[in-house]
Amino acid sequence: xxxxxxxxxxxxxxxxxxxxxxxxxxxxxxxxxxxxxxxxxxxxxxxxxxxxxxxxxxxxxxxxxxxxxxxxxxxxxxxxxxxxxxxxxxxxxxxxxxxxxxxxxxxxxxxxxxxxxxxxxxxxxxxxxxxxxxxxxxxxxxxxxxxxx
Length: 149
Description:
The chain is an alpha/beta fold. The chain is 32% helix and 22% strand. The longest helix has 13 residues.
């Protein structure tokens, strides 16, 4: 069993301000794969990736002040009454309104069942072969202090 919090460490080089990135997904292999790739291809060593398998674990670590949260909106929360989807987004917004949110999904378009209080409060990515490239662009914008809200 994978621990709830996985921090993928790196050796820092002289870098600009380091920031936290959270990935929240109940698919352990995808969670580990995306987290590993993000750290491996982080030439400036300016962010640290924290991986969580539940919304609750993500919220328990908000003291790390993430600049970006990449989350699976459709986690299997109905099965175990876990925090996910619109409720997780609302809690993130209450705790850190300045944090950028990226929703990952296998759906080609944001579905009508994607309930949020503010449709402009997140960035939607289809989980496919181009996902990582899109995440890299978002990280580049955050590095330049142009967060997506």
